[in-house]
Amino acid sequence: MKFKKGDTVIYPQHGACKVESISKQDPLNTGKVQDYLVLRTVIGEMTLRVPMSKVDEVGVRPPVSPDELEDLVAVLAKADPRVPSNWSRRFKNHQEKLKSGDVYQVAEVVRNLAARNRDASLSAAERTMYERARVNLISEIAPALKVTTDEAEQYLDDALAKGVLKPVKAVKAVKALAPKVEVAPKDADDDMDDDDDFMEEAKPVKAAPAKKAAAEKKPAPVKEEAPGKAAAAKKAAPVKAAAEKKAAAVKAAAPKDAAPKDAAPAKAAPVKKAVAKKPEAKKK
What we know:
Layout: E1 8-11, E2 15-25, E3 34-41, E4 47-51, H1 55-58, H2 69-76, H3 87-100, H4 103-119, H5 124-145, H6 149-161, H7 168-177, H8 188-201, H9 212-215, H10 227-253
Antiparallel strand pairs: 1-2, 2-3, 3-4
């Protein structure tokens, strides 16, 4: 494949490049001078030197034509791509696709990682791979359409929006157009009937059995009196009994006839001390 200065070529993993020159060089100082294809990347402005004898082996190729972009959009717009769930297998698969330099395989990497980023957050390694693949694909779309980088990026996003990055608004609009099923309102009588049925079907809730400790009440504990108070009460008991006995004897000895009206009624003797009646004063 022949290239000339000013041509745009695609270098795998670096995207679109401009041919700066084809010259004889010995960059490794091996003593062997050979023809080198000197390239400068469109994004990043990195200089690459590829021996002309290894151009095909490396995968340097011309960019896609405008007619091939339709097939590229079809790959990007696929709605449900199958991607390995295992991270290591998925990463290795995508890495091999990027190394191939094939534009359709690079488009698959962009599509798959865009779908993955939609459903779950990408790891740091996969996010770097996704951004690198997007840059490579945009740099190839731009010369094919002869547009700027921003316009090429919009073209890529529009293609993804037809599939894995379909806007949420479109989904909501489809749901809004779906026929709504209206439920007839219930009458008040029907509500009352439902309440009656509920009351009939409802079963009384049985009370939980009380604990044995609550059912069988324990007698209240008797407070024990202090030893000093108990001894005092014990000593006072016979004195109180003797006073009551003496008062009963005095009451029995009193005359049964009623006292005269003029006489003043005798006062009841206190329980504790028996007081004898005073003799009446002699009339002078």
